[in-house]
Amino acid sequence: MFSGLGALGVAAALAGCAGSDDDGSSGPAVAAGAELALKSEVPVGGGIVLTDERIVITQPTEGDFQAFTAVCTHQGLLVTSVEDGTIHCANHGSSYDATSGDVTGGPASGPLASVEITMDGDRILAA
Ligand code: FES
User: Fold this and answer.
1) Is-above-0.85 flag for pTM?
2) Assigned CATH topology for domain 3-126
């Protein structure tokens, strides 16, 4: 099953290995092709924070999924929630745009880095 997608997944995985060969000690900790969530788990206008994988997945508008590192650029703690198009870090009050990852409120000074994702039916996978 999924033979066509499987081949694409392998290609993506190989490309991912060549491009980012870190151990994920501070950024996202997930292998390419790993299932992150179901689309239905990500609320429209909001999002979910995957604490184990250190990834935040948002759905700013219906059917538009974005993913970012969940590691806040302020002091490296994990962001805590996504509401009304904003990613919040309740640790010290920073906020980020859920579409771009850009800072919308300090003390964080830098944006959340994007994380590549792919869709497989209702599943959201790491790319
Ligand atoms: S670690 Fe996120 S606001 Fe300080």
Assistant:
1) no
2) Rieske Iron-sulfur Protein (2.102.10)
